[in-house]
Amino acid sequence: MKAERRHELKHNELADWLGERMETLKPHATGIALGVILLFVLVLGGIWYFGGESQASAQAWSDYFSALNDREPQKVLQRLATEQSGSKAAWWALDALGDMNLGEGAGLLYSDRAEAQKRLEAAEQAYKQVEATDDPVLKARARLGLAKVYESLCKPEKAREYYEMVATSQKDTAIGKAAAEDARRMKDTREVAFLDWFAKQTPKRPSPLPGMGGGVPGLPNDLSDRPDIGLSPGLGLDNLGTVTPTQPGASFPAPAAAVPTTAPTDSAAADAAKPDNAKPADAPPPASPPANSPPESTEKKSE
User: 146, 263, 273, 303: least CB-packed within 10 angstroms?
Assistant: First the structure.
């Protein structure tokens, strides 16, 4: 009985405490309900936002890898960097743009300095944007690209500065060791002298080979027009197998002489080699056989 009584008293105390709390919270019931609803909305909004961001990020990476296989990757990468600005895929797209422009600009230094300057400046602009990111790998890649851009522009001091930045931030890594070696190379007086000499050169485009004319490589462009291989205009085909002259006085071509089956003798070849004016105007008639000589047929009969 005592145990049951104690349990009843505890139960009543709990009921009394809850009743007091409910009475205390009644004036704030509306605010509490609104707070619970707001918390629920925030949770659902966070789930939707982060889920949509993940989907957008996946689509951006898909566009990035597709752009590398496109016929004009630079246009696709530039559009991706603009539309997905601030995303990781956009930073890598800008870095890839810098790499492409750097490679093309360095190659054009030996043939077209004006175009090379444009490509290298585009690479510098892309690398400068990537350098602002917080990703240490991308930052190191951008600074290494800027060092190579300035070296291509024959600016050894600025190139050495960026090489040293990469060597310091990426110490004991492959990229850091390579940057340190390049920084030492930019201090070499021979390397500096070579860059100074190279900056003063004005290379020209190689002249095309004879017959090329600047058109399709490997095909001559100075050929004459295609010859007319049609039938002679003086002949007409009225029907199959029948050839008639179509103009007054037109004649058919003489048939080709038959090719001899045996080689001509020396005398015949000599006669053929003589010019027409070397032959006598009137050849004498052949000598008549003697009167008393019998005909050839009679001799054959007697035999």
Answer: 303
